[in-house]
Amino acid sequence: MPHDGREGTSPRHALESTAEEAVERLRIVTRGYEVSARGYIGAAQLLRYFEHMRWRVIWQSSRVPARDFMSVGVIRAQRLEVFEATGFDVEVELSIWLSRVGKTSLDFSHEMVRASDGVRLARSTATLVTLDGDRRPAEVHPAARQYVSSRDAARVERLDGPVPDSAFEHPVVIRPSDEDLQGHVNHARYADYVEDARFVCAAKGGYGNGSFDGPPRSMTLSYEDEARTGDPLRARTWLSTRAPGAIDFALVRGDGRVTTRARVGFDEPGAERKDEAR
């Protein structure tokens, strides 16, 4: 996300408000063309809503003046949790806050609630790595820490491990329209690639017995390398051995390098944490 060079709130000025005030909000109405053929707003579109909020915060926010702490950033990982499927013509309120500050990274957390009754529909956390002019990791200004909110947020899980030889494989064609201003495939587009591979695999029985084509309740994406138009890409998917009931993915380039890992879950968000606590 580029910096426009404008002056903003100085990080030397301490935040003279509560943590709740360090939250940006925006109301939108879901549109018919955003609804998938399956009748709900898909994971990629939800991630695009939240990306829009990050752009607004970095571009113009005074509540969370991220532009004072970074110049350019790329998404390293993110997790989406869906509590209730959303359809057409629903007014929702999107919110964003800073939930973690590291040496060269920031966590932006998001929530989407139904405006009419305040019911939480989805939430997400995205880890953004800050870069300098040469696209190398750059340190975040320490004053960013005073804007961190302790609100409850989604936690990004670590994805790693080998790709099984038996994984189902689905080719991906990267189009010029898949790229964003940074000249690589937009992070939310990978969610489309993952969902496309899931539906194709499920239709062909690649996951075995069970139903694996329903609405996802969670999606984690870990970005390990960039992909661009013309890069040969294959989506490989298999039943997860590390998260029972979930599906794992790896998007692999022609040279064998993994560009992105993903995990789609179908359990109620937070259920895995309850299991860990037992």
Sheet with the most strands? 10 strands, antiparallel
Low-confidence stretches: 1-19, 273-278
Helicity, as a percent range: 10-25%
Q: Strand pairing plus helix content: what structural class?
A: alpha+beta
Order of helices and strands: EHEEEEEHEEEEH
Global outline: globular
Percent of residues in beta strands: 25-35%
> What's the rounded overall pLDDT mean?
89
Strand order of the largest sheet: 1-3-4-5-2-7-10-9-8-6
Distance separating the two termini: 41 Å
DSSP summary, beta strand count: 10
* Tally of helical runs: 3
Using only C-alpha atoms, the radius of gyration works out to 19 Å
What would you say this structure looks like, in words?
With 278 residues, the protein is of the alpha+beta class. Helix content is 15%, strand content 30%. The protein has helices at 43-60, 187-203, 271-277, and strands at residues 23-29, 72-82, 91-101, 105-114, 120-131, 168-172, 218-223, 233-239, 247-253, 258-265. A ten-stranded antiparallel beta sheet has the order 1-3-4-5-2-7-10-9-8-6, with helices on one face. Strand 9 and strand 10 form a beta hairpin. Helix 1 (43-60) packs antiparallel against helix 2. The termini are far apart.
Keywords:
single chain, 278 residues, alpha+beta, ten-stranded antiparallel β-sheet, 3 helices, 10 strands, 30% strand, globular, disordered N terminus, disordered C terminus
Précis, in short:
The protein is of the alpha+beta class and 278 residues long. It has 3 helices and 10 strands.
Secondary-structure blueprint:
Blueprint: E1 23-29, H1 43-60, E2 72-82, E3 91-101, E4 105-114, E5 120-131, E6 168-172, H2 187-203, E7 218-223, E8 233-239, E9 247-253, E10 258-265, H3 271-277
Antiparallel strand pairs: 1-3, 2-5, 2-7, 3-4, 4-5, 6-8, 7-10, 8-9, 9-10
